[in-house]
Amino acid sequence: MKRRTAREKAFQALFQIDSSEINTEEAIEHVMDEQVHDAFVNQLVHGVVTNGTEIDQWIENHLENWTFSRLARVEKTLLRMAAYEIKFTEDVPSQVAINEAVELAKLFGEDQSGKFINGVLSKMM
User: Fold this and answer.
1) Contact 35, 1 (CB under 8 A)
2) pTM score > 0.85 for this model?
3) Residue ranges of the NusB/RsmB/TIM44 domain (predicted)?
4) Alpha helix (H) ranges present in 1-125?
């Protein structure tokens, strides 16, 4: 599975986890349908869930005129994924993580989501 597709699947799983009482494994199963499990999807989802408190605080520290609790669920999920990739993975260049989050924001978010995501993540660099 291409990494772009894996990020989309991870986003969908994390969004479900944040939106409902579903557990991590169920969320991954649900978004993967009949597809073979992907190591990168698992890494992203489990990494964000495991390091969630630290990631959320790191994001909160870089928001201007916003609080973390005010963020829309789409933006919050995308920021968490990209922050995880930037801070905890060594095989993904930070700029790639930012670009991928911006592209996913254009796909799943509002008109200004991509610009917002880019701005916050750029401050985190």
Assistant:
1) yes
2) yes
3) 5-124
4) 3-19, 24-32, 39-50, 52-60, 73-88, 94-108, 113-124
